[in-house]
Design brief:
single chain; about 260 residues; mainly alpha; MetI-like fold; 2 domains; globular
Amino acid sequence: MAQKKWIVLSRILAIGAGLLAWELICRRGYVDPLFLVPPSEILQRTPLLLKEPEVHEAFAITAYEIMAAFALAAGIGIPLGLLIGLKNEAYELFNPVILVLFAVPQVTIYYLFVLWFGIGVTSKIAFGFTHGFFPILLNTLAGVRGVDRMLLRASRSMGASRLQLFRKVVIPWTIPTLITGLRLGMNFTLLGVFLAELVVSQKGLGARIIVLTSSFETASLYSLVGLICLLAILINESLRLLEKRLGQWRTEKVVI
């Protein structure tokens, strides 16, 4: 416990030292304020930024794109992963194809999404979906394929039906890995949506970042980027805690 507290304290001190150094470098004029402003100025600018109607609209649009893309990725990736993972023939057939498609750098084909769906919200949702879909699908596959075969044999020997095996063995065993896939899928969905907005966008946080950059509103730009990072960290940590909680029973079983 004492070691854990020391680690937390060390992190806080490191962050504080970094912010202090940043503040001093900016205040002493070592860098051009056009490119870097002190943290105190960013902090002062944040409440004003949050009052701007354009920022509210941008947050709402981007949040809609992220949630729609993530819902599609999870809604398709999880059932498909379960179906492919439960059948050896389907797994052997589709797994290499899935891995090849996942390896494709999707940013290089984004303009195909623009060609198919236009420059509006739909292309951002589609691009976010393709980023989040593969981590969810692959982790679901890994969870299903990693089910303890001894548990399956023991359940069959006690007369469990296929439906009972699926509900009582496969699903509970897969949940921790599935939550990991959802966490990674959300991270990749965020990446896909923001990349799409930064490349070609009329609305959303990416478009707002482009406006602030082109008008050299440095403090507002850093403030908005900081808020986006904070939101991403909160989402990731929430899913990580859920992952840790749901995966605890399986970890304890392995240790025993």
